[in-house]
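Example 3.2
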Amino acid sequence: MEEKFHLSQRCVAEALGTALLVLVGPGSVVATINLDGLLAKKPVAFFSGGDLLGIAFAFGLVIAALVYSIGKVSGCHINPAVTFGLALTKRFPWAEVPAYWAAQVVGAVVGALVIWAAFGHSAILAGMGQTSLHAVGDGGTHLFSTAQGAIAEGVGTALLMFAILGIVDGRSPGDLAGLVIGGVVIAIIMALAPITGASLNPARAFGPELVEALGKGGVTHWGQLIPVYIVPGVVGAGLAAVFYDWIAKPRLVVMPIGEAVTHPDAPVHAGD
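Structure, written as tokens:
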């Protein structure tokens, strides 16, 4: 009989996984800002290509590790948008979605709190590794519009969802799941981080934002949270899941004539 983990076990795994994702991902942003001395260049810190690559790899590697460590327990969603996409395509029960979402949000907040505890007030000054529309200048003028940010997050999360469904498909080599998912996260971050920070995860966006506010930091982006990081991510994941099922599920469109009229020969009995 197949093992099935209790919902409480799976929620703890989701909370732990999301906490570790936030600790290592946004934590690497805070670490980079501190190591490079970018805090002295306030109010806006720009990353070099090398910095961005290092941060992207931090996200990708921790996700790969989590896929292999808690994937067998909870499925390693660690992302409300992924949970939504799986539920929308009947891969996950709707009744358990609220519990998973709650666990992921709590985990994201806990991960951000650990960053704050580890780095102290410098984490708050560094913005807690929040994601936001890329800004420039002392006034923080946005280089990209809310619509552009929404498109980037929606497309990025859709690509992530599409890759996840592709590699966990029973016809794909499952042993590579962690590497493929981690790798595609690295690729998406490298492509879209200059626009929005490439959150690709509503919980990841919310946790650092909340802790930044609790620490009374001056860098908050509450107005961007819903239109850029929550709605586009959830919608993108849902659309990607539906599209994957449409494109990847074999469908009988035209039945070859030979198969339609050919039947197995009837058994021949002695004396017939």
